Amino acid sequence: MIKNQQTIKEERRKIIEMIDASWELAQRLGKHPVKTGCNCIFCLNKRKRILKKQEMKWKFNL
User: Fold this and answer.
1) Residues 22, 40: contact at Cβ < 8 Å?
2) Quick one: which H or E segment has residue 20?
3) How far apart, in Å, are the Cα atoms of 28 and each of 6, 16, 38?
4) Is residue 41 a contact partner of residue 26, using CB atoms and an 8 Å limit?
5) What is the dihedral of CA 37, 51, 58, 20, to 10 degrees?
6) 52: phi then psi, degrees, rounded to nearest 5
7) CA of 56: how far to CAs of 20, 24, 52, in Å?
8) CA nearest neighbour of 19 among 35, 47, 41, 38
9) What pLDDT is attached to residue 29?
10) Closest to 43 in 3D by CA, of 57, 29, 61
11) What is the pLDDT of residues 41-51, one digit of tens each?
């Protein structure tokens, strides 16, 4: 059980490090169009929205 908890902590740490790295990359690159191979947080989120269209309608519009 202790080994299992250790691997879970390591996986969580790796995920947080990847998210931090993608934020840093987005800051370094600045504003740019969505690129296929770019791993910054902006491009990742845009590609995710393009690939997985939202099926439900929002209740409020801006």
Assistant:
1) yes
2) helix 2-29
3) 33, 18, 12
4) yes
5) -30
6) -115, 95
7) 30, 32, 12
8) 41
9) 87
10) 29
11) 888 888 888 78
Tokens of 59: 């209740």
Residues in contact with 38: Cβ distance below 8 Å, sequence separation at least 6, in sequence order: 25, 29, 32
pLDDT in tens, 17-59: 999 999 998 889 888 888 888 888 888 888 888 787 767 777 7
Structural contact between residues 41 and 19, judged by C-beta atoms closer than 8 angstroms: yes
SS3 52: coil
Rounded to whole angstroms, the Cα distance separating 21 from 40 reads 8
